[in-house]
Amino acid sequence: MRSGLRVLLGLTATVTLGAGIVVPAFTASASASSTYAAETWHWGPTASTDYKGWATGKIRSTSSGLRVSGDLYDAGGARTCSWVKIKWLTDHGRYRTATFKNCSQSTPRAFSVNTGYMLSAEAKVCRGTSTRITGRCSGWEGVWSQGG
To answer: Is the N-terminal amide bond of 24 cis, ω within 30° of 0?
Structure first.
């Protein structure tokens, strides 16, 4: 469907009336080269093994690669936090990680990381203190892979 729209963006249709008058039926003003259509993939929820922390999110294409974003929820007790760890494989064959925490116990925390061009991404949710992950982690869940 998107490739069909790209073809139509550069075309102008005309309708010929009975008296030989040609009237433009529609005119597409945007060209395919000036328009950038971002794609979005959703993932989650991924939960810690005690189900007191979970994360959901999306991966969105940008002009400089991909962006992984989402919300981290914390339903744990006092002095505990939920952590989400994102791991991705770059197009250069290197693994990178980003870690985010939420200690609010009531409000989801938004997170976002620009990954650039990547081959795959995984996420896991853990429990911990305000300074480090202590355990009760989910397994690595594949959230995005190039080619499906």
So the answer is: no
Q: What is the pLDDT of residues 17-29, one digit of tens each?
A: 444 544 444 333 3
Cβ atoms of 102 and 72 closer than 8 Å: yes
Q: Give Cβ neighbours of residue 52 (< 8 Å, ≥ 6 apart).
A: 74, 75, 76, 77, 80, 82, 127
* Residues 34-66: tens digit of each pLDDT: 456 789 999 989 999 999 999 999 999 999 999
Q: How far apart are CA 62 and CA 40, in angstroms?
A: 10
112, amino acid identity: S
Quote the pLDDT of residue 124.
97
- Number of Cβ within a 10 Å radius of residue 123: 24
> What is the pTM for the complete model shown?
0.73
- Which of residues 34 and 120 earns the better pLDDT score? 120
Count Cβ atoms within 10 A of the Cβ of residue 12 and give its class: 0-12 exposed, 13-18 middle, 19 or more buried: exposed
**Distance between CA atoms of residues 35 and 5, nearest Å:** 12
C-alpha–C-alpha distance, residues 128 and 62, integer Å = 32
Cα 3 to Cα 5: distance, rounded to the nearest angstrom: 5
